[in-house]
Design goal:
Layout (H helix, E strand, L loop, with lengths): L1 H31 L6 H19 L2 E10 L5 E7 H6 L1 H9 L1 H23 L9 H23 L15 E3 H5 L7 E3 H23 L1 H11 L1 H6 L4 H23 L9 H16 L4 H18 L2 H6 L3 H16 L14
Antiparallel strand pairs: 1-2, 3-4
Helix pairs in contact: 1-8, 1-11, 1-12, 1-13, 2-5, 2-6, 2-11, 2-12, 5-11, 8-9, 8-11, 9-11, 12-13, 12-15, 13-15
Length: 343
Amino acid sequence: MEAFILQILNGLDKGSAYALIALGLTLIFGTLGVVNFAHGALFMVGAFVAVTMSKLLSLSTTTIDPTRTDFLGNPATIDTPYVVNWFGPEVGATLIDWAVPLAILLAIPVMILFGFIMERGLIKHFYKRPHADQILVTFGLAIVLQEVIKYFYGANPIPTPAPDVFRGSFDFGTLLGFDPNTVIYPYWRLVYFAFAGVIIAAVFAFLQFTTFGMVVRAGMADRETVGLLGINIDKRFTIMFGIAAAVAGLAGVMYTPINPPNYHMGMDFLVLSFVVVVVGGMGSLPGAVLAGFLLGILESFASTTWATNAVPGINQIIIYLVAMIVLLTRPRGLMGRKGVMED
C-alpha cells in the first residue's frame, strides 16, 4: 500500500507537467486551429526565466576587506549581492532564496509578450495553411529557440533550487496511519502539483465564467458566426495565444527545482505533451488535463522495479502503447469532439 501511494504521488507529479503543457497546446489548437510544435520551447523559455531571475538576484559587487587576507596574504575580496546592499541582509537573502517563486512575476508579462510576438509575427501567416506546414514552421522555431538558449546559457543543466522552506520531504505515513518515514515525498513536488491545480482551475474558470471566455468558447465552436456579430474574435484569439504561452511558461518556472533546466528540455516534453493531447482528444481541454494525469500515473507505475523486470523498457514506451490502444478503440481520443482533425 505504501508503494502504491508513492507511485500515485509520482504520477500526479509527472501528470501535472503533462497536463499544464497539454492544456496550453489545446488552447492554441482549439482557438486558432494551429498545431504548435514550438509549445515545448515555451515551457523551456519559462524555465530559463526562472534561471534569469535567480542570476539577476545573485548579481553582486566586489569589495576589499582590509581586515582579512587570502591564502597569499593579499587583502580578501568579498562578493555582496546588490539586493543585500539595497534591502539589507535578511530581506536580500530572502529574495535570493525565493528566486523561483518570484520569477512568476517576471514570467507572466514576458511569456504573454512572447506569445503575442510569436502569434502576430509568425503563426498568423499559417492559419489557412495545411497542418503539415504549421508543424514544420513551429518545429523550426522550436529548434531556433533551443539553440538561442544554448548559446546564452550553455549546454549544461543549471541547478535552480527551491526556497529553503520547501526543501526536504513531507511524511505522508503519519497522516495516513502508516509508520513514520514509510511514505515520504518532496515538499516542492507537492507544491508543483498544487500550483498546477490552481492554474488549471483558473484557466477553466476564466473560460467558463467570464464574458471574454464565453466569447472565446463560442468562437472555438463557430468562428464565422461570432465574427458576423461584430466581435473581433481574432484579437481575442491572439490574447488566448498569449495566455497559453504564459501557462506553459509558468509550468516551466515552477519545474526548475525538480529538474535543472537545460536547452533541450522543451523537446523532451514536446512529444509527450502531444501524445497527451491526442489521447485526451484534439481540441478538448478537459481531455488534455485528464489524459495528462492518467498518463503520468501510468508512467509512474511502469517505472517500478517489478514492471521493468517483467517487461524491460516498459517505462519508456507505456505512454505510446496507451496512445495506440486509445486511438484504435476511440480515434477521437477520450474526450475528442466530432470533426476535429478529421478533414
